[in-house]
Design goal:
Elements lengths: L4 E2 L13 E4 L11 H22 L5 H8 L3 H29 L1 H20 L4 H27 L7 H9 L1 H16 L4 H11 L2 H8 L4 H6 L3 H11 L9 E3 L14 H25 L2 H7 L4 H29 L1 H20 L4 H28 L3 H31 L4 H19 L12
Parallel strand pairs: 2-3
Antiparallel strand pairs: 1-2
Helix pairs in contact: 1-5, 1-6, 1-7, 1-9, 2-3, 3-4, 3-5, 3-17, 4-5, 4-8, 4-9, 5-17, 6-14, 6-16, 7-14, 12-17, 12-18, 13-14, 14-15, 14-16, 15-16, 15-18
């Protein structure tokens, strides 16, 4: 059956053909993957790398920040957490905004606002103003973080969507390496210069706005058929007659409350819980990694080298997950990778030698980030386009709650009689919970986006 079906009408013989209708997702079924997709991938890849950079860069200049503002490490921890605190309401706000004003406009406004408040952070005279500026930076930057993956998925051919989106997630270790490199190169000049570089990175939003087209799914929902047609032509869709009316699934025409109705409600609850448990299992360990490594006998410089090597090993983790999810789907590759990451975490937590510690940590980095790449892809595919941004936003909300709470609780456990090994094993339990929850979500590999 053709994917373009005439609208049923009482057409009289000899009259002009009526407009044709077409589900916008059908245009991506046989679309080739071309140079335009590579350009889009490169632009959004670096946008995601900037997000990773922003979330970690203050961690690597914490000592200078404490000395400069004459505060203790508790206050430094609050300043670092302020970004995540801002992302909690930001993720809930920007998701619906992206569904309303479009993916492209969301990225533009989010990058612009983030750049302004990050630049203001450079001139913060005290801890209080810095924390407020960081909170506002997180609130505004949530737009880019929330929309990057759904945006990319809505521009990709069905046959490569999974693999390509996992590659996009590989921007995370690049961001980590960039943050480490920046701290090493200019950190000696003070934390303000490191933040200034972050503010300059917001100019990447201009490149994104120039290169990446609006989502045809969003355009179709708005009835902007000519604009949707132009974008699909640019993306290399097969010849589609002019005047075609692009359609979306009927259940897309609903409010944000559609996230909690019937089947969508079940999916939303499960994916938010996965985002919470997976983020806790990953971030609870990463946020204290330098301290844990130093407690195992590594020097501060060796600890940073260890983290850098772990970041490098994340890249092949993404590459293998990208290949495998394209062949075997989301659910089983995600499940296997998270289980393997949990095994690596267990090995790291119970290591009795430095070699065992390296094997455990590198296994955790390889498999955990491969699983994150699959999850970032899978999460956006669970929703129709009218709810995709909002659904993704709720997922990021779950992540940010874990990002905010986990470091404090883990710090408390490390400071108590619990000990490092027991604390690491406790963190690992969240990875096992992630595996169980993932079994209850539907497979999406090879299906059209709605």
């Amino acid at each position: 059956m053709s994917s373009i079906d005439p609208l049923i009408s009482g057409q009289a013989p000899g009259t002009a053909s009526p407009p044709r209708s077409m589900a916008v997702g059908h245009a991506f079924r046989d679309m080739p993957f071309g140079s335009i997709h590579l350009k889009i991938c490169a632009v959004l890849f670096f946008a995601f790398a900037i997000e990773a950079w922003e979330m970690l860069m203050l961690t690597y200049v914490a000592g200078d920040l404490a000395t400069s503002l004459q505060v203790g490490m508790t206050e430094v921890g609050i300043a670092i957490s302020a970004l995540f605190l801002g992302m909690i309401p930001g993720s809930l706000i920007w998701g619906p905004i992206s569904d309303r004003i479009g993916r492209k406009a969301t990225c533009a406004w989010s990058f612009a606002g983030y750049g302004v408040f990050t630049l203001l952070s450079c001139f913060a005279p005290n801890f209080e103003i810095l924390s407020v500026a960081r909170f506002l930076s997180g609130l505004l930057f949530s737009g880019v973080f929330t929309v990057t993956f759904p945006y990319f998925e809505e521009l990709l051919p069905v046959k490569v969507r999974g693999r390509a989106t996992v590659y996009l997630a590989a921007g995370w270790p690049i961001g980590i390496l960039a943050a480490l490199g920046t701290a090493a190169l200019i950190g000696g000049h003070g934390w303000r210069w490191v933040i200034a570089v972050s503010a300059l990175a917001s100019l990447w939003g201009i490149v994104l706005y120039k290169v990446v087209p609006e989502s045809p799914y969003w355009l179709a929902r708005r009835g902007l058929n000519e604009e949707a047609h132009n974008v699909l032509d640019r993306l290399g869709a097969a010849s589609i007659p002019r005047g075609t009316i692009f359609t979306v699934a009927e259940d897309e025409k609903q409010s944000i409350w559609g996230l909690f109705k019937k089947r969508m409600g079940r999916i939303t609850i499960i994916q938010v819980l996965i985002n919470f448990t997976f983020s806790w299992g990953y971030w609870g360990l990463q946020s204290w990694m330098p301290t844990l490594l130093e407690g195992r006998g590594l020097s501060a410089s060796s600890s940073f080298s260890f983290i850098a090597l772990s970041a490098v090993l994340m890249i092949p983790g993404y590459m293998t997950a990208s290949y495998l999810t394209g062949r075997f789907g989301r659910k089983w590759i995600f499940t296997i990778y998270v289980l393997a990451a949990a095994a690596g975490g267990f090995f790291f937590g119970t290591a009795s030698t430095e070699t065992e510690m390296y094997i455990g940590m590198f296994s955790l980095a390889f498999f955990a980030l491969g699983a994150w790449g699959v999850w970032d892809t899978w999460m956006g595919e669970l929703y129709p386009s009218a709810l995709r941004g909002s659904g993704y936003g709720f997922g990021i909300f779950g992540q940010r709650v874990a990002n905010t709470v986990a470091p404090s609780l883990v710090g408390f456990l490390l400071a108590s009689a619990t000990g490092a090994t027991s604390t690491i094993l406790f963190i690992n339990m969240f990875l096992f919970a992630t595996v169980i929850l993932g079994l209850f979500l539907p497979e999406t590999e090879g299906s059209e986006l709605e």
